[in-house]
Amino acid sequence: MFKNFFYIFFLITPTTLLGNEPKDWQLGFQKSASKSMSDIVWFHDYMLLPIITAITAFVLFLLLYVCVRYRASRNKIASTTSHNTIIEVIWTLVPCLILIVMAVPSFKVLYSQDEIPKADVTIKAIGYQWYWGYEYPDENIIFDSYMIADKDLKENQPRLLTVDNEVYVPVNKVVKVMITANDVLHAWALPSFGVKRDAVPGRINETWFKAERTGTFYGQCSELCGIKHAFMPITVNVVTEDEYNKWLEEAKVKFAKDEIKNNIKIVKKIKDLR
Question: What is d(CA 167, CA 254) in angstroms, rounded to the nearest whole number?
Fold first, then answer.
């Protein structure tokens, strides 16, 4: 009995109590970590859900009323009414008004996601079958990110979400993400940031986020991309600026892009020849 009680409790518990990854018996969104996601959660919880609930309750009431009021035992002779002009006008105009009310905040959220402010950090995410590759173009950093197998997981590392090389970004900074793919369609998605963009071969899509708190956030490829689609996790560590700068120093050595180094050497040789 107590077990069932706790299951029901967690089902109705607000999403703000949930962590940065999917939870058992979770109902709703993950806890937001950016303004974009907070806007999405507000729109869902305080705009869509009340409207959906009201419409569902109203339609249920009408069905029950019709079943009782116009049952065969009470109406020996069936009504021959074919239409009602006033009702038809109402059921056309009311849905239109509801859609207009929903559209205003919806467009506002969509525009805020589409309009990318000046970036403090730029990351390029490349989808492969079946892992993610990352570049920090301004920092000469490039690395691949593979999922860690179950047998290699350490304590408290989530299954199917942990990777060997994680993305690091500073807190309260605008991060622009350029997303593409090398083979088939993928999708780079981070629920806590309200971010989801398709990765299309030969094309670069852009999105952005500004993390409002530190922590480790998880996402996954959200476009069916083949047999190992479920094994393309995304892990982003949001850290303080000092911790980010420290990671940058280490990453510039560990993940230095050899191609850029070689190009620099070639340019230097050309200058020397001149």
Answer: 14
Complete domains list, the chain, with CATH: 35-114 (1.10.287.90), 121-263 (2.60.40.420)
Task: Look up residue 151 and give its two tokens.
Answer: 């047998």
The number of beta carbons lying within 10 Å of the beta carbon of residue 95 is: 11
The strand pair at 121-128 and 174-181 is best described as parallel
Strand-pair partners of 132: 127, 145
What percentage of the chain reaches a pLDDT higher than 90?
70
pLDDT of 84: 86
Residue among 155, 171, 175, 192 at smallest CA distance from 20: 192
Q: In what order do the strands lie in the sheet with 174-181?
A: 141-145, 131-136, 121-128, 174-181, 205-210
* 111, 126, 205 from 10: Cα distances, Å: 33, 36, 37
Cβ burial, residue 122 (10 Å; 0-12/13-18/19+): middle
Res. 25: pLDDT tops 50: yes
Distance CA 26, CA 10 (A): 7
Under 8 Å between Cβ of 44 and 102: no
What is the separation of C-alpha 243 from the centre of its chain, rounded to a whole number of angstroms?
Answer: 25
- Which pair of tokens denotes residue 222? 């959200």
pTM over 0.85: no
From CA 215, how far away is CA 217, in angstroms rounded? 6
Given a contact cutoff of 8 angstroms between Cβ atoms, the answer to whether 166 and 148 are in contact is no
